[in-house]
Amino acid sequence: MSLIDFILHIDDHLIPIVNQFGGWSYLILFAIIFIETGLVVFPFLPGDSLIFAASAMAANPKYGLNIWLVYLIVAFAAIIGDSINYEIGAWSTRAGEKHSWFNKLINQNNRLAAEKFFERHGPITIVIGRFIPFIRTFVPFIFGGSKMHYGKFITYNILGGLLWTGLFTIIGFFFGNIPFVKDHFSMIVIAIILVSVVPIAIVAIKKKISLKKEFH
User: Fold this and answer.
1) Angle made by CA atoms 46, 137, 103, in degrees to the nearest 5
2) Residue 197: left if φ>0, alpha if ψ -120 to 50, beta else—which one?
3) In Å, what is the CA distance from 7 to each residue of 14, 51, 60, 89, 188?
4) Does the reported pTM lie above 0.70?
5) 66, 152, 154 from 26: Cα distances, Å
6) How far apart are CA 78 and CA 123, in angstroms?
7) Spatial contact of 83 and 154, defined as CB atoms under 8 Å apart
8) Cα dist. 99→88, 104, 105 in Å?
9) What are phi and psi of 60, to 5 degrees?
10) Residue 61: which H helix or E strand, with range?
11) What digits encode the pLDDT tens for the residues 126-164?
């Protein structure tokens, strides 16, 4: 099973998981969101679509998922995940060249994109970055490496975590079981991913325009 297939048909994969594991499905949801946000080498996991699909299933009584539990668990996983990622970034900076092998595991293009996003938007990047695939995994890592005080980081972390998971929980719960959405779920997931990536494209385009102006 390819990653693309898993993302585009996450509802099809999530249904048998819930049917087979029942209440343990909450732990699986926690684990996937925690890994995506907490481990900088796993930015490709489908956090947005997973929350959307799980919330849509919670709207249907036959799956036995409680929407409040879904929200609390994914929000907690996102906040704890970013905190761990922050510590990994801080450790990476302290360790320096002693653990240069670690940097080889990290996608440097995504890391650079997160750094540019941080330079442009400042601390609010912690909140905004939550809504952008790949970027959200690197943002806490970058802030940990920047030596930002953890007390300041955790405030933005909690705000961003609650807003990100809350938005996709609400959208999934209220719209996920509408016939049109169910029939075109794959296209909806693609739209979610594309919309999330738009801010990166805008920043990249503005950067190229500014560079061209500098050389003319």
Assistant:
1) 120
2) alpha
3) 11, 12, 21, 27, 11
4) yes
5) 10, 30, 24
6) 17
7) yes
8) 12, 10, 11
9) -105, 115
10) none
11) 888 788 777 777 788 888 877 778 888 899 999 999 999
